[in-house]
Amino acid sequence: MPHPHDETTDGELGARRSVAYVLPVYNEAEGIETFHTALVEATGARTDLDFEFVYVDDGSADDSLDRLLKLRGDDDRVTVLSFSRNFGHQVAVTAGLDACTTADAVIVMDTDLQDPPRVSIEMLDLWDRGVDVVFAQRRSRQDSRFKRATAFGFYWVLDRMADIEIPRNVGDFRLMDRKVVAEVTRYREQDRFLRGIVAHVGFRQEALLFDRDPRFAGETGYPLRKMLRFATSGLIGFSTAPLRWISRLGFAISAFSVLLAVYVLGVRIFSPENSVPGWAFLGVGMFLLSGLQLIMMGVIGTYLGRVYVEAQDRPLYSLALSARGSRDVDGGRR
What we know:
Blueprint: E1 17-25, H1 32-43, E2 49-57, H2 64-74, E3 78-83, H3 89-98, E4 105-108, H4 117-128, E5 133-140, H5 145-161, E6 170-177, H6 178-184, H7 194-201, E7 205-211, H8 224-237, H9 241-270, H10 279-312, E8 319-323
Parallel strand pairs: 1-2, 1-4, 2-3, 5-7
Antiparallel strand pairs: 3-8, 4-6, 5-6
Helix pairs in contact: 1-4
């Protein structure tokens, strides 16, 4: 019986299937060779598949690009894409996906060895059984208490706010079948939250539990500032709950104001001797309501800003180098 994913683009059955790895790189010069060695060793267990390794240099400030080009010279399966500047992790993954639409499956993973290459081979086993998306779900992680606490809080809030179900403790480490990649690459919004996009696309998705390893070398590309921005993209990009909360808060404040007015009127009518001018109370209330209005305007402005950015319709990225030349990569809108 032919495999569910054995069908090639020309309709033939039984042909060798191809798997592409999308590997975003940002200042990972110290560990690139070690990672690639581990990846080649892991993929060597699947001699029935053809592999391609697409490294996307996200404007690294170290010599990551030089080391990637050396890898390309030593391994003809390596493709190197280099951005003209730093565009961010999510855009780097998008550029890799744009370059791999002809592969039968695509695996996205980071190059810091926190995502073990051996786990990607287990993903291929699930793909063999007909699963379209295999996402690696962290059973444990070697991060600081602060990172674990903020991650838990983010997923807790996202689970309650998002309009779609986005799995917890899941990053961008995942396998996607060709038809899923074709759908994901159609999503071209600027503020990208790929794990939400993949969840929104649908298809048959299953989790693969794994224990996340400690970082091999270098520093994280997600400091607190970027983490907060990324979390905001995920919350706002897949939920309109903040806008609904603004309306609910407005109704609640209005109802409280009506009750307070009834209370004041009652005191003035039935107990005027207890009526005390409340200038301090009025002043505090005025500043409180002004602050709430500014917060509401900020939330609305955030959504409006996203509309403005999307209306500009700018390309997601610009390539300074495409070191392989076997396919053209389009960084613009589709």
